[in-house]
Amino acid sequence: MQCLDGTAVIVDPMTTGPGTSAVLSGTLYVTLMALLVSVSATAQDRLIRQDWWLLESDHFSVVTNTRGETPDNIIEDLELFRAVVLILTGIDEVEDKLPTRAVVFKSLSEFNRIARMPNIVGFMRSTLRSNRMVSGGSSLSMGQRSIMFHEYVHLLLRSASSVNYPGWYDEGLADMLATVHEKGDRIVIGAESETRMRTLKNNPMTVPLERIVNTDDLSSWHPYHVSYFYAMSWALVNYLNVGHLLGSPNRVPHLQQYLALTQGDTPRPQAFLDAFGITPRAMENELNDYLGTRRRPVIMLPRDRFPEIGEIGKRKLSREEITYELALLAVFRNTKLARSLIEDQLQMESANARLTGALALTYQAERDFARGAELARMAVRTDPKNPELAIDLADLLILWNNNNCEREKVGCADRIIEAEQSYRRVLELAPDNPEAHAQLAALLHSVNRDLPAAAEHIDTALDYQPWSPNLNLLAGQIYKRLGEIDSAREHLRRALRWSENEKIRTQAAKALAALGQSSTDAPSAARIP
C-alpha cells in the first residue's frame, strides 16, 4: 500500500495477523526487560561493528552491509531500472536535483531493529533533502523492488513531465514499470504482479471499473476498495499495453487518444467513450477475460538496447558514518536506540557536530524542545558552515513554537527571529537550498510578511519537487493572499490531486471553495513555468 505523501511501505504477509497478549508479574516483567535491553545493546554493537559499504553511481548511492557481489548488483539494478523507465516513457533525461540514497540491510531482523516498523520490509520517502529507499533483506526481492520502484517511477515522471495523468493510469503505469527486471540477456516488461493478482482474487470488496477510471480522490474509500483500485489500475494498464499480444483488440492507439483527451476540457467519462469506443463496463468484461487466461504476455527486449552502467565507486564506511546513518533512520521510530548509538560514538569524538545535531533530533522526537535546541545550537557553533545543521535548528524552533507557544507565551517571537536568521544563513551558504527556501516561505506566510518574497522562495522549492502536495498547498495559500487567483487555483488543484493526506486535501478544497471554485470544476492544467 502507499502511505501518506511520498512514503511507501511493503507489508510482510508472513507476519500479519492477530496478535497475542499476556499479563506478566512485576518481577518477571522487570527481569525480561533487563534481558531485552542487554540483548539489544549487544545486537546494536554487533551491527555497528559490521563492514558497511557505500557505493556510488551516476544517479544513486547505496549504503549496505550485504556481502559478496550483492552490493554491486543492487546499484546496477537501480541504474538499469532508471534507464529502462526513461527509454520506455520517451523521456530524454531527468536532472537529479536531489540525491537518491538506498540503505539495504542484509537481513529483515536488522532492518526492524533500527526502523521498528512491524510487518514492513522496506519503504521509500522523498524530502527536500533527499530521496531515501530503505529495505531489509540481502537483496531487492521482487516485492521490495515493486513498491520502491513504483514510488521511484512517480518521482521520475512527475519531475520530468507536465502531463497530469488520471489517477488510475498514474498508479497502474508505476506498477507496471516497477516490475521491470533483467533476465539473462533480456529486459522483461509487464511481468505479473503477484500482490495485485492476489488482491483481485481475494479482496472481499470490489469496485466497478467506471468508478475507478473516473476518480482521483481515494481519501474516503474503504481500505479494501483502495487496494482494489490499485490492483485494477495495474491490471488495466497492463492489458491496454500488452493485451493485443494474446489476440485482444489493440488498445494502444485508443489509450494514447484517451490520455490526450484527459489533458483538455473533455470530461473523463466522455474521454473514455470517445477514445475506446466502449463503456467502462464493456472494458471490464474484456479485462476479466484477459485476467482469466492461464498465462499472460510480457514484453522482452534485448539488454544491449539499453545503456551500460557507468563506473561505480565503492568504499568502506567509518564507524562514525554508519552510526550517523543508522541513527537518522531510527530517530523518530526508535528514539532510544538512536540516542544510544549517538552517545556511544560521542564518547569517542565529543566535538562531532553532525552527531550532536542528530542527538538534538532525538530530543525533538520526545518533544523536549529546550534540550533539543540547546544541542542544535551547539552543533551549529561547532560547524557553522553546515547548512543541514542550521536548517534542523530552525525547524526545531518553529516546531517548538507550534507546540508550546499558546501555553508558554514566552520566547515565541525570539524563536521566530532566530529561525528566520538560521534559514537566511543557510541561503548565504547554499543559495539554491530547496529546504531553506520552502521553510522560509512557510515562515513568512505564517507571519503574513513579505509575501512576494515568500512566493519567490516557494517557487524555488517547487523547482525541486513540482509534484509535492505540501509545497503546492503552501504555494496556493501564498498566491491566494497575493491575489494571483489563477496561480493559486492551479497549485491548490495539484495539492488536491496528488495528496492522500486528508488534512492537506481538506485545506486545499476549502481554499479552492473560497476562490469560488470546486475542486472538480476544471481539470488540472500543465505545470506552471
Description of the structure:
With 529 residues, the chain is of the alpha+beta class. Helix content is 58%, strand content 9%. It has a 7-stranded mixed beta sheet. Strands 7-8-9 form a 3-stranded antiparallel beta sheet. Helix 2 links the parallel strand 3 (61-64) and strand 4 (100-105). Helix 21 (485-498) runs antiparallel to helix 22 (502-514). The relative contact order is 0.08. Residues 1-39 and 519-529 have low confidence and may be disordered.
In summary, what is this structure?
The chain has 22 helices and 10 strands. 58% of the residues lie in helices and 9% in strands. The longest helix has 24 residues, at 26-49.
List keywords for this structure.
529 residues; alpha+beta; 22 helices; 9% strand; disordered N terminus; disordered C terminus
Kindly state the percentage of residues in helix: 55-70%
Average pLDDT, rounded to a whole number, is 84
Structural class: alpha+beta
Overall shape: globular
Strand content: 5-15%
Q: Biggest β-sheet, characterized?
A: 7 strands, mixed
Number of helices in the DSSP assignment: 22
The rounded distance between the terminal residues' Cα atoms is: 32 Å
What strand order characterises the main sheet? 1-5-6-4-3-2-10
Query: How many whole angstroms does the radius of gyration measure?
Result: 25 Å
